[in-house]
Amino acid sequence: MSPRLMREYGLLTFPCSKPQQVNKTITILQNENNDSLDVQSKVNEGWMIESDWPITNDYRDSIVKAFEQDGRLSMVHYFAGHHGYSMKFSMAAGLLFGSIHIAAWNFAFPSKAETILWRVAAVASTAMPATILLLLLLPDIAGSRFRNNLYNVRNKLFGRNPGRTVTDGGRAVGMIEYIIAVYGTMRFYLLVAIFITFRSQPANVYATVDWSKYIPHFG
Amino acid sequence: MVPKRGEKWYLVSFRKVQLMAFTVIAPEMLIGSAIGEYWLARASVRKDPKVTSEWTTTHGFFALMEGFVVESGDHFYRVNDEGILLLKMDRCRLLNVTEGDIKDRSKADILVKATAFLQALWLLIQCCARAQQNLPITPLELATVGFVGCSLVTYTAWISYVSEAYARVWFAHFSV
User: Is residue B2 classed as helix, strand or coil in its secondary structure?
Assistant: First the structure.
């Protein structure tokens, strides 16, 4: 059996790698001794290694605090720069997702105001991730003259400067919070607009594609 | 994320609703999270082959979901792959968890997802055909295509390849 074949066979037997909807943890070590502080420090240290961003003391403290209070980290740590790549991918995806909404630029909306609102919301929700993506990418490719300035802008945005980095529970607090609020509002409006647009649509919208009625389908 | 031990059911449900609302408002932001998770899970396989006799991407994902717990006194700590490695180096005897043990707890409904995927494919074909026949598309259809695209990428990151560590065991077994 060739390795490639085996790999394919393995793919068939284990199609899903990420466990879904798990409700119970697995205890892998039960430590009855009193050296609990040592175990705790090892566990904390483990979570701190896993990062490609510089880890500040505040961030360290927040991890320790999160473990003491909740016994775990919150999901937000992906978005708090714990893994720099994930942020870049999210922003790139936001750019694409936003441009899909821009594609509806000339669609028939019930009123002039709604057309303008849609366009503003679509452009804003595309421009925001685009700007952040640029800020994430530029410092690495810019010349040395601008690099420090760009880092400063980025740090201000994500609240990396000491004292403002992380408050409790591993959450980052910076300008990004306001951006998220505006972004969320735009997204929410787009979502609402999708449904209120239905109150008045051209009749053609209800016409089916020529051939589709000949193919059995559901949905 | 795996719930806390003894966490109230309504808190667990509330978190699920929270995540659902997040997915509806910004599905594209989950893509980065999923890809990041996939990367970290794969890196954990490449990094520590000696953590347990069998450490797969499933283990990596499970560690990232904070599913592995170390009990010490009356404290519970969520431990990740690096932490496990550190404990191993400290000569702690850890429970050997197989991939099957983790998968046993997973409730992946592949049939439901496959159906949803087929429906999404149908929607995509319809949209293309409508555009081709100059029929108008509603914003709902267009946005749904976007949503489907986002969840497709997210699920692809989660449904990853069988890890190298697992394959290595097999090679030793079969290739001679």
Answer: coil
